């Protein structure tokens, strides 16, 4: 079947996955207001295109965290990717490598981080702060030793949000899928009515991160540190003061605080406030190359994609994941040209309007 856009791959993935695994991937927290708002906010932003521009030799290449990428896109961290395909993170990392974009290895990956990193490309490592600080910093060391290029420190998960779909399903990991980077015990596999075993497991393992945690990570690695989950302007400015190389403006895909503002709604204000002091990326709701263009116009240097990449993985393994990135490349190239831009940097000079 020909897939012409990411929505086509979403439908294919929904057909391919068991219902409770689809809910684990697709769901948000609470009433899923923030999950829906991520798309609503993007749909209300309109770009003002420029005309009569020179468009020969246009490119989608961009600099992301100091290195060239084929697109201003990175793959977001997503836990337990063997839920979606037997090869899980290995197939996903190969697809990102072949497409020329960074791939973020999750603390809760279902393949050890060293095995994923050896695939090559541009691996980043996402860190959740654990109750045992030594274990957290050991993960940072392992990531650096494995060749990861950045630490993406997720700061918006002191504990997991109430994800009602998982609770209603009594969701638990199958025995074949584990947290491969550390001994997680049996909690994530214990099925209990009205309880998410994954949330129970993270409640046992995670601790709230603080600015002191950020300082500890920075002192423990030579890698760039990116703080993921920033929404307040004040936190963005403090991240620069704390020495962060970058921030990801994100409400965790609507999976943490239900009612949290969409990242795209804060992006321009945050980008203006940090004024080049660190790189600003956006996460949440990106579904088209046109969405990427909007993020660039509002001040992002790039975006992260999570669920759509998993749709491709579920639909057709490595080939499906690669197709997600190929479709974004085609759509972004088209959107750039129609907006009068011959490059990603030119898109940052576009104006936008917000329809209320």
From TrEMBL:
Keywords: Flavoprotein, FMN, Oxidoreductase. One of its GO terms (molecular function) is FMN binding. FMN binds at residues 77-79, 126, 154, 228, 250, 283-287, 306-307. Residues 1-356 form the FMN hydroxy acid dehydrogenase domain. The keyword Oxidoreductase applies. Its cofactor is FMN. The active site is at 252 (proton acceptor). InterPro entries: Aldolase_TIM, Alpha-hydoxy_acid_DH_FMN, FMN-dep_DH, FMN_HAD, FMN_hydac_DH_AS. Glyoxylate binds at residues 128, 163, 252, 255. Belongs to the FMN-dependent alpha-hydroxy acid dehydrogenase family. This is FMN hydroxy acid dehydrogenase domain-containing protein.
């Amino acid at each position: 079947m020909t897939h012409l856009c990411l929505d086509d791959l979403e439908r294919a993935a929904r057909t391919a996955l068991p219902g409770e695994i689809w809910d684990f991937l697709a769901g948000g927290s609470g009433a899923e207001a923030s999950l829906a708002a991520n798309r609503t906010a993007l749909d209300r932003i309109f770009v003002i295109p420029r005309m009569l521009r020179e468009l020969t030799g246009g490119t989608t290449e961009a600099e992301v965290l100091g290195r060239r990428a084929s697109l201003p896109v990175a793959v977001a961290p997503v836990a337990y990717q063997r839920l979606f395909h037997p090869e899980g993170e290995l197939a996903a990392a190969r697809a990102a490598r072949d497409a020329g974009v960074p791939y973020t290895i999750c603390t809760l990956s279902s393949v050890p981080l060293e095995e994923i990193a050896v695939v090559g490309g541009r691996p980043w490592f996402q860190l959740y702060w654990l109750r045992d600080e030594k274990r957290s910093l050991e993960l940072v060391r392992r990531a650096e030793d494995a060749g990861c290029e950045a630490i993406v420190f997720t700061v918006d998960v002191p504990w997991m949000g109430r994800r009602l779909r998982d609770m209603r399903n009594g969701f638990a990991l199958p025995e074949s899928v584990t947290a491969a980077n550390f001994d997680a015990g049996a909690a994530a596999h214990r099925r209990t009515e009205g309880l998410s075993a994954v949330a129970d497991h993270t409640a046992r393992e995670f601790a709230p991160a603080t600015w002191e945690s950020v300082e500890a990570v920075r002192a423990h690695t030579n890698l760039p540190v990116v703080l993921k989950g920033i929404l307040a302007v004040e936190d963005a400015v403090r991240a620069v003061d704390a020495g962060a190389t970058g921030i990801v403006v994100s409400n965790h895909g609507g999976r943490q605080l239900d009612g949290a503002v969409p990242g795209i709604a804060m992006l321009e204000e945050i980008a203006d406030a940090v004024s080049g002091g660190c790189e600003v990326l956006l996460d949440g709701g990106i579904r088209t190359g046109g969405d990427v263009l909007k993020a660039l116009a509002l001040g992002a240097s790039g975006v992260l994609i999570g669920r759509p990449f998993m749709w491709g993985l579920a639909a057709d393994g490595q080939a499906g994941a690669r197709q997600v990135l190929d479709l974004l490349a085609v759509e972004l190239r088209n959107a750039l040209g129609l907006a009068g831009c011959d490059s990603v940097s030119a898109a940052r000079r576009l104006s936008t309007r917000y329809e209320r």
